[in-house]
């Protein structure tokens, strides 16, 4: 199974970590956390107004995964489950933060930055980033998960809770909007 499909090695490693965790071996948690920490941090940085809140979200995400692991039912890749927990955690933390912040600070935070690693730094990439920022939040999320986090459409469906066809349709719509904007820039 390891070499049958792209990502097969990761899936095999993921299954090994899950087996270790189920057997109570703390090395499983350590390996899983080490492997996914940077990806989940990038995801949380995308959703949080500052690095501190993003790091809090990452810590809380992994704590929730540890806490609720006994209830986890292995269906598909664990990575999709991890992103779903991260998405919910970021939403909860940001909601709590908004309730605590004065209105002036909320306005200063503004739109979420898409300038995370994976989007590049070239001038064309800056135009691309602006176009992505101009998308609705739901389209921006799908574009980010697909291209910055390299999730498969089925995984995006699991993370967002949307049907696969809806994810496909929204991704096509987002890409059409981006392409149209890029053509206007030329």
TrEMBL record:
Pfam families: Sigma70_r2, Sigma70_r4_2. GO terms for biological process: DNA-templated transcription initiation. Residues 128-177 form the RNA polymerase sigma factor 70 region 4 type domain. Residues 36-98 form the RNA polymerase sigma-70 region domain. SUPFAM superfamilies: Sigma2 domain of RNA polymerase sigma factors, Sigma3 and sigma4 domains of RNA polymerase sigma factors. Belongs to the sigma-70 factor family. ECF subfamily. This is RNA polymerase sigma factor. It comes from Candidatus Dorea gallistercoris.
């Amino acid at each position: 199974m390891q070499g049958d499909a792209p990502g097969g090695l990761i899936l095999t490693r993921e299954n090994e970590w899950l087996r270790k965790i189920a057997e109570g071996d703390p090395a499983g948690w350590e390996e899983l956390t080490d492997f996914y920490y940077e990806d989940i941090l990038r995801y949380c940085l995308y959703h949080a107004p500052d690095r501190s809140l993003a790091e809090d979200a990452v810590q809380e995400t992994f704590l929730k995964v540890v806490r609720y692991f006994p209830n986890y039912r292995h269906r598909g890749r664990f990575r999709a489950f991890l992103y779903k927990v991260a998405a919910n955690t970021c939403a909860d933390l940001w909601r709590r933060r908004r309730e605590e912040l004065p209105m002036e600070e909320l306005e200063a935070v503004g739109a979420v930055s898409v300038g995370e690693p994976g989007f590049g730094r070239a001038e064309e990439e800056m135009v691309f980033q602006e176009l992505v920022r101009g998308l609705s939040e739901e389209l921006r999320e799908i574009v980010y998960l697909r291209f910055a986090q390299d999730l498969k459409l089925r995984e995006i469906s699991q993370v967002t809770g949307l049907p696969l066809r809806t994810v496909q349709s929204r991704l096509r719509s987002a890409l059409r909007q981006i392409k149209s904007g890029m053509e206007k820039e030329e």
